[in-house]
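Let's study today's protein:

:::
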Amino acid sequence: MSHQPAGGNILQQPKAVWAVAFACVVAFMGIGLVDPILPAIAKELEASAAQTELLFTSYLVITGVAMFFTSWLSSRIGAKKTLLIGLALIVLFALFAGLAGDVESIIGFRAGWGLGNALFISTALATIVGAASGGTSSAIILYEAALGIGLAIGPLAGGLLGTLSWRGPFFGTAVLMAVGFIAIVTLLKTEGAKPTPSPISAPFRALARPALGFLAATAVFYNFGFFTLLAYTPFALVPLGLSSAITLGFIFFGWGVSVAITSVWVAPILTRRMPRTTVLSVILPLLAADLLALALLVHSAVGLIVSVIVGGMLLGILNTVLTETVMEATDLPRSVASSAYSGVRFLGGAIAPPVAALLADVVSPSMPFYAGAIAVVIATGLIVVGRKHLKRADGLTETPIEEAEAISVGDS
């Protein structure tokens, strides 16, 4: 039995979709771009690991907070203008980060980068879903493929450019985002029907819907595990002699390729055979086990590298299935659902890097991975407990009473 509608050929998309997808690749490169150069920045700018991890936190906090307001803005000025403003801000602040002379300035510029990222990413998802051929599932797979490719290329580009200077990756991002800006100006000609302006409170009210509330809470703990793996592992590899930008770049390139492969090919296979909540309930515990393996193998270079690659495979599945679940779990406008979910998701990820660095410093190098595993176990529990509210996402029809109750809770 299929649990999602059949889609068309994912490669047969309008040019506008490919333009937005390309810009998505570059935007997601920004997440992993700094991974290989974290040790270099810490060394050259005489910053502690905790300070350097704030490059993730400032970026993710501002991204998360701003996400709550992107649907309000895009519903008034249109998706294209919102996308272009976001891209322009990323170009500007990536350039400023490359010119910075101290870690505090880079932390601040990464925050501005996060604002542009929020405007772009949340609107890009809704734009791709609205414009892509083949239905919602095909559009989300395309979006998650862009995420995976961006996460793969980001560390590799960061590693290659980082061999020249830690400033190189920032300048490279500015150039690529400028190309994305031009592509969207040129190829995204129309935006479809004029959107109905949504109130600024819409994403916050959306979180009161039981389905979206459970998924957002799940995302907080899931992303704690996600960014513990992404942001802390480079520092765990340094004592094992793997500190060069190019080495770390290739390791996380392998991680990103794993994310891309499973998000595009494995996730759809699983969701055709099982309900989405079942997939989440199976794969989340496997991610917790992978984080536990990272903790136990923290003194083994081979063990850490293998666990990072396996983690990428699991994260690719989870990213796709969680995004599909969010988009299908309610009857809310997709831009509102995306803003609400993404805001909470990125705030969850923002907590992990500094907490991981603090736990490693105060307790032990393995403690961040233990904490990540516990967080993912909690995420699993939330999916299991909230499953009765996620029938719509599983392709099951809610009763009129259940649907009315969910809507009344969200509107109260």
In short: The two ends are 37 Å apart (CA to CA). The chain has one domain: 15-411.
